[in-house]
Amino acid sequence: MSISLEMLLLMLGCALVTWIPRVTPFILVRNLQLPDVVLRWLAYIPVCILSALVIESLYHAEGKFVTFDWLNLIAFIPTLIVAIWTKSLSKTVIVGVMTMAVLRFFL
Amino acid sequence: MSTHLNFNESTITDDSFAQGIKDCIPTLLGYISIGVAFGVIGITSNLSVLEIFLLSVLVYAGSAQFIFCGLYVAGAPFSVIIVTTFIVNLRHFLMSLTVAPHLTRYSSLRNIGFGTLLTDETFGVAVTKVMKDKQLGGNWMDGLNLTAYLAWIASCTIGGVVGKWLPNAEDWGLDFALLAMFSALLVLSLSSVGKSKLMHYLKLIALMAILLYVLLYFLPGHLAVLIATMIVATIGVATEK
Predict the structure, then answer these.
(1) Where are the transmembrane segments (chain A) (predicted)?
(2) What is this model's ipTM?
């Protein structure tokens, strides 16, 4: 098992551009006090980014028109109900995966 | 919102490494299923097990690793692979910026450590913790981060090793684990915002759905997510009471 120097450099390049956005805020925030409005803005980021990630995967943007990804949308309904009902991460994931497995089996 | 930033270490409740590991466990099914799926796809993209291992150690980002395989197998120039990886992972900047103010009392070195191991999932677990407890502990973060990191590396590598014999992960619905996890984290975040703010947040989510729909006509998914998040958060601040 070996790896070419070229491949190693490519991976290091990808590692660097992934690392910089992750680490910069941690260094930045230590050295300056963020204004109140920025902190208020940041308080909205969790809900916004999580809902964006969820909603984006319910859309299907491959064709000429953006439509729903029906399979994901159907599996999303019981998943969301379990999430609201149990407030449990593991139960939600298990129900979600099982729903998708059943859907793929029959469709 | 900013008052909770001025606390000292003695007020931390349950900032233990062990609790961090424990709080990571519900996300492991997500890491393992996506990691194994990545290992399998890596093998079919002509990567060796060593390359799969190194990629998960060095890049440590699910979506970027999948895209890496896709571009690599398509013979894309290295510059394109690196620029795409950068754009796909740019959302981590926002995530780090959200988590970092809660950890400023720790040393620079430890902060670099927190940032290096930040992912979508650990971000989700950490912000849910912040919304519930109004604070974050460094030992707890390390427990969460290291568990997730090791689980990811192990799953990717195992996926690579068993690659050729594993039935397609998609058929088992495992690819849905990520979406299910984000849904649960979203519900958990919303359940701790309080009744008065909930309506405001639900309106913002409705707006998010419309905005994303429009943006997806001209932007790839990861960029649409990033831009829609920044726009909706700005509208959130502008319309709050």
Answers:
(1) 41-59, 66-83
(2) 0.88
